[in-house]
Design goal:
This protein has 301 residues and is an alpha/beta fold. The protein has ten helices and six strands; from the N terminus they run ααβββαβββααααααα.
Length: 301
C-alpha cells in the first residue's frame, strides 16, 4: 500500500472520516447508515488513500475496504460536478492496483475482488435533490454497447434542510452538517469559523472533536473554502483571462497574470469573510505575508 502524502491539505470531512483518531469508528457508522447494518468491529475497516488525480495539493476523497468484501469510495463536495463518475473510474483503477497483489492479475483462475460502491456527499449551497444517481455512460460520445464499461455514483445531499434519512442513521455525519451550517450562519460576522466552533461546542455538536482540534479545524476550513471557491469560480476565469491576455502579450505572460489575479481574488474573498490572520490568508493564497498586506492596504484605500 502506498505511503500517504502528508503535504495534502485535508478538509474537515476527510479528517473526520480518514485521519482523525475516531475515523474508523466514523467510517463504520457511515457504512452502517448506507447499508442498514449494525457492524461494531472497527477492525473490519481498512482505509486506503488514493492520490487526487486533478488537484495535487488538495486531497478530499476517502476510500476503504469493509470486511474484505466491499470497496467504499466516498467524496465530499460543495460544488456540483457531473464529471465525478469519470474521476471515480480513474480512482478505482488506482485503488485496486494498490489493494490487490500484483500477481493476482496473471492467475489462471478467477480472482475475487471487493465490490465497489461510489458515493458523493454534497453540502453546497446550490439547490440539489436529496439523492441522485450519476452514470459514467452519460459522458460517452456514442451509445454504449453491451460490453461497455459502466459506473454509477450515488450523490447524497447532506444539507439538513433536505432531511435525507442518512442523517438520522449517522450521527457524526449529521453533526458535521450542522457544524457547516453554523459556519454559514456566522458568515457575515468577524471570524465566522471561530464563532461556529464555539457555538457547536456549547450545543454538543462535534464537541469532543472541536475541543481537541479547534485550531486545526479552523485552518482546514480556511484552506477548504478557498479551494472550493477557486474550483467553482476562479479557475476557469483565470484561464480565460490568461488566454485573452496572451493574444496580445504572449501566451505564457497571459497565463501568469491570470494566475496572479486568482491569488489576489482569494485574498480579497477571505478579507471579506473577516478572516484577519494574515499568515492563514497567505498560506491559502500561496503568497507572502507582505503581499497580503499590500493587497489589504490597497483594498482599504
Amino acid at each position: 500500500m502506498a505511503t500517504e502524502n502528508r503535504e495534502y491539505k485535508d478538509s474537515v470531512f476527510v479528517d473526520l472520516f480518514y485521519r482523525d483518531e475516531t475515523a474508523k469508528k466514523n467510517l463504520l457508522s457511515l457504512y452502517n447508515a448506507l447499508h442498514d447494518t449494525s457492524l461494531s468491529d472497527e477492525s473490519l475497516i481498512k482505509k486506503l488513500k488514493i492520490e487526487n488525480i486533478l488537484y495535487k495539493n488538495f486531497n478530499n476523497d476517502i476510500s476503504c475496504v469493509v470486511g474484505n468484501e466491499v470497496f467504499v469510495f466516498g467524496e465530499h463536495q460543495s460544488t456540483i460536478n457531473p464529471n465525478i463518475p469519470v474521476r471515480y473510474a480513474m480512482y478505482a483503477g488506482r485503488a485496486y492496483e494498490q489493494a490487490l497483489d500484483k500477481r493476482d492479475r496473471y492467475r489462471t483462475h478467477l480472482v475475487k475482488i471487493p465490490t465497489p460502491e461510489f458515493y458523493v456527499f454534497y453540502n453546497g449551497q446550490q439547490d440539489y435533490p436529496a439523492q441522485q444517481e450519476l452514470s459514467l455512460s452519460d459522458a460517452f460520445m456514442s451509445k454504449p454497447g453491451c460490453n461497455s464499461m459502466e459506473l454509477k455514483v450515488t450523490v447524497i445531499n447532506i444539507n439538513t434542510d433536505k432531511a435525507h434519512k442518512i442523517l438520522e442513521k449517522c450521527s457524526i455525519l449529521r453533526e458535521y452538517s450542522l457544524f457547516i451550517g453554523a459556519v454559514r450562519t456566522h458568515a457575515d460576522e468577524q471570524d465566522p469559523i471561530k464563532k461556529a466552533i464555539e457555538e457547536c461546542i456549547r450545543k454538543g455538536i462535534l464537541a469532543e472533536y472541536l475541543k481537541r482540534k479547534g485550531s486545526e479545524v479552523r485552518n482546514m476550513l480556511v484552506a477548504e473554502y478557498s479551494y472550493e471557491e477557486d474550483i467553482k469560480v476562479k479557475q476557469e476565469e483565470a484561464k480565460q483571462e490568461g488566454l485573452s491576455q496572451g493574444l496580445s502579450q504572449g501566451l505564457s505572460q497571459g497565463l501568469s497574470q491570470g494566475m496572479e489575479r486568482e491569488k489576489i481574488d482569494t485574498v480579497q474573498r477571505m478579507l471579506k469573510m473577516n478572516i484577519l490572520d494574515l499568515e492563514i490568508i497567505a498560506q491559502a493564497a500561496g503568497l507572502t505575508i507582505d503581499d497580503v498586506v499590500k493587497i489589504k492596504d490597497k483594498n482599504s484605500v
